[in-house]
Amino acid sequence: MTKSKEPTNPPAQDMPKTCFVITPIGDSNSTIRRSTDGLLEAVIKPVLRSQSYEVAVAHEIAESGSITKQVIEHLLSDDLVIANLTGTNPNVMYELAVRHAKRMPVVQLAEEGTRLPFDISDERTVFYSNDMLGVEELKKKLSKAVKTTVESKEPPDNPIFRAISATTIKLTVDASTMEAYLISQVESLNTQMSFLVDQTRSKRPYGSDLRAEKIRSEIAKLEEQLPFMVTDNDYNNLKHRIQTMKYDIERHEL
Fold this sequence. Notes:
5-stranded parallel beta sheet, 5 strands
């Protein structure tokens, strides 16, 4: 008597990659809905499908049940999220925060002219022009952004993670240690700034743009950590030094 073969789960490499798109939706036939559907059909879906992603978006989910529950499940489990921040829609911002809390890959998009809220204005965002040429430009930029995001060896960074990390540090080390840590970070940035200034004055700008961008990123992280980690007096002192460095970057046009 032969034993029947038990079903086996498909190998991991055969499992499709999943991407959920956070986007303003609007009423049927509204300008917002037409813009969203146009962006989805002309750019987002073709680009992601070319990289073997299954794409889901809230207003196209056909399964019965709570749409809110289904959206949150996608935000917490999908391999990738594309967030269209055009119009800074409140639902979009809420869903982006849920994804940030999970600390999983996100690519942010926004139409040119969108003024992003302060909390996420420093996060990398792909801006696009809403015209026919913009479609072709965005395809290339989005494809590159997706690959860069998912292939990064570092876990995704975002404002929620940085705030949690700063609070955790504050709870686990004493005040003098926190102050020493921040001062060392500021001193390190000052050293890097001096190197950049020297390069500019000597007309040796090789790599300056990338180094300046890294300094801007580190400064932004320090600014977020300060309120959680130091006293008011230390905060004012360190904040002044950070503002001076930001001014130096702009003054030397690095």
